[in-house]
Structure prediction request, 384 residues.
Amino acid sequence: MGSIRFRLTAVWSILVFGLAALVVGGIYLGLQYSLKNQKISAMAFQVGGITFIQPDQAQLVQRAVNERALDALRVYSFWALLALFFLSLVVGWIVSGRLLRPLGEISNSVREIQASDLKQRIDLGGPNDELRQLADTFDDMLGRLDEAFEGQRQFIHEASHELRNPLAVIRTNLEVTLADPDASAEELRHAAEVVERSSERMARLVDDLLVYARKGTLSLERDPVDIALLINEAAEEFTAPASAAGVHLVHQAVGGLWVVGDRLALRQALGNLLANAIRYSPEGTTVRLRGGLEGPWVWLAVEDQGPGIDLVDQDRVFQRFWRGDSREGREQGRSGLGLTIVRQIAEAHGGEVKLVSQVDHGSAFALWLPALAPAQPSPPLLES
Prediction:
């Protein structure tokens, strides 16, 4: 009783029956009016060759004929309308069933799709009507959900793999140390240092994972950000780590550079670039931090004199958990998410991050962000 097919059939039958009843009623009233106004002035009959006319009986004959005609019309109309009602029910049920058949196919396909496997599609055929568009829209949604779930599964797999390595290192060192009752203080200290480095690496990885996971869902602040001040703050913070690594950090920014965005997020992106540059720069080299304007874009560049990145790897550096030399990266405690987070932050601000690198000549990473206000143009940024 509550199905769409039943309601469509009922509405269809009521409409057909109602329209037919109006038509028949109109015909009946019109015929009744016409017969009522039709006059018979006299009645003539012949007996034995003599014609008699009786005007008094004319009206009686007229009324009898009219009443009989109207009675016949009422009876025929009643049965015709009754038959039409049941016929409209049958036709409406069949037609609505055919019209709603694609909806049933969509429902069955959706019911068969499992949450763990979104590869199946409705793939509805037939004319390009509203139901076909609904099925195509649902297929597109399934495709996007499948991509999102696949990315989530891959992310969980990679994250668990990355966390398993430092845990294995900690466990192995502890087992070896505990198995040796004669372990010296130096050996114990060495094991403790290994455990400390591994735990630091896990903490850094967890922090990066949280940032990576949340940047796609958190709405960033949209405030004016002074790029020159941002560069000065980053340079001040990384001067000590650069000195400890034997790297000279220099910075330069043109005044009046403003963008709209999240200052803390941009500060984090710039910090990730500086941390990578200092980590990969040989002792005695220079890391440059600069900013400027080119057209409607503000750029922030971090340039180093490190080993550079091979051309075949330059498209992969922004992939999560990519470290180049995986073993060396793990030993240095890198999570492989720093540049991925940089790209996320840049894209969230309507910009992008670019890389120019040459093996044995260093690398230059640049954040390009939409400028808030015009400023004096700066020299071109990156030249390969």
